[in-house]
Amino acid sequence: MKLALVVPGGVDRSGEHRVIPALLALIERLAAAHELHVFALRQERWPGTWELRGARVHNIGRGSTRVRGVRAILAEHRVSRFDIVQSVFSGACGLVAVAAARMLRIPSVVHVAGGEPVSMPDIRFGGRISWRGRCQEAVVMKGATAVTAASEPELELLSSFGIAARRVPLGVDRVRDWPSREPVARPPGEPARLIHVASLNRVKDQSTLLRAFARLAPSHPGLRLDIVGEDTLGGEMQQLALALDLAERVRFHGFLTQRQLHPLMQRAHVSVISSRHEAGPIVLLEAAAVGVPTVGTAVGHIAEWAPDAAMAVPVGDCTALAGAMHRVLSDEPLRLRLARAAWLWALREDADYTAACFEKLYAGLAHRIL
Fold it and tell me: In Å, how far from its chain's centre is CA 88?
């Protein structure tokens, strides 16, 4: 097949910086079996093309991005016919994919990968916070031949809007990025380490994380928290850590590549997620792949995996989050049970599984003329 994949970015020429590793894993697997063209709407400012993981990347660049994105797909279709157009993320990516597919009379697949179906006006997050966004989502969801999403909670949210979607988790590469490691016991007396991997922003809600950690720290001498992710809040979380007297316990690493993140994740005993919304999150799968269990808010995979393979608490509840972390850190058999169940889940639903799910979907849609 010849496939068009529309993404916002995450496919930098370097293959290491400004990338979405799970997306690269999917691209590599699809490109191994199909002719794959990736249309990145905003990877770089100016238009350009490059090869990445066996696929041809077409960067659209700024200015009339949606229109030029559709035109780029139509132009490549004239070279040789596409069979499927897919987007990862709805929004602008979904609109480009659906519009191009409709013009070409071929099937389209939209993968809902973030906050497209939610509205959180207090933090200006979600695809449905404005009438324009709601209209765009309605057009994309109605126009797509098939809709997919990573987790059952996301499917339920889409169902509440009358959208029937299929579950396709974005699994991690257990060969290149996250070589599998079974859970290992924490040596007696070893200080516990927590890790949080996410961009510092409102939806990831690191303020709840830090307040929970401040409640937890006095009962766990030597406890440390590593926070990994780009800071989009201008140092606000670092200032909160200082105000909570956590400067000696919390380290902000900023952005790290996958190679830099890997040893930090392996040293951790628990991964913590404090998000207000997640379609996944992928970091839960990354942690699980190396035997690290997750405690977090009841969103996405965390809600889906709890109580056997993750521990979930209500969104925004720092007291509950602190209690859950304390329980897992204080009960090593429980931590290992969670870790092993999560590890087995990550093995089942890895990047190979994701690619196979999409290929099965493509096979069912191929050759349909719309």
Answer: 11
The encoded tokens of residue 201 equal: 């922003």
Closest to 277 in 3D by CA, of 212, 198, 210: 198
**Which residue has tokens 């770089």?**
44
Give CA–CA dist 96/144, Å, rounded: 11
Amino acid at position 1, single letter: M
What structural domains and CATH numbers belong to the chain?
2-171+350-365 (3.40.50.2000), 193-348 (3.40.50.2000)
Eight-state DSSP code of residue 363: H
CA distances from 241 to 51, 177, 209, 267 (A): 42, 31, 10, 22
Question: How many residues comprise the chain?
Answer: 370
Please list the helix, strand and coil fractions of the chain in percent, rounded to the nearest 5, in that order. Answer: 40, 20, 40
Three-state DSSP at 45 gives coil
Max intra-chain CA distance, the chain: 65
> How far, in Å, CA of 25 to CA of 114, rounded?
18
Smallest Cα–Cα separation from 277: which of 143, 177, 169, 127?
127
CB within 8 Å of 353: residues ≥ 6 apart: 169, 171
Could you tell me which residues are beta bridge partners of residue 230?
A: none
Instruction: Specify whether the CB–CB gap between 209 and 295 falls below 8 A.
Output: no
E strands along the chain, which residues?
Answer: 2-7, 35-40, 48-52, 55-59, 84-88, 108-112, 146-149, 166-167, 193-197, 224-228, 250-254, 270-273, 294-297, 311-313
Pull the structure tokens for residue 25: 């894993």
Q: In the 8-state DSSP scheme, what is residue 201?
A: S
Q: Is 330 helix (H, G, I), strand (E, B) or coil?
A: helix
CA quadruple 306, 309, 315, 319: dihedral, nearest 10: 110
123 DSSP assignment:
G
Task: Show the tokens assigned to 78.
Answer: 């004239």
Q: Nearest CA to 369 among 187, 105, 151, 71?
A: 105
For residue 237, which amino acid is it?
Answer: M
> What are the mean pLDDT values of the chain's consecutive 10-residue runs (370 residues total)?
97 92 96 98 95 97 93 97 97 97 97 95 94 94 97 96 96 92 93 97 98 96 96 97 96 94 96 97 97 98 98 98 98 98 97 98 80
Q: How far apart are CA 215 and CA 54, in angstroms?
A: 48
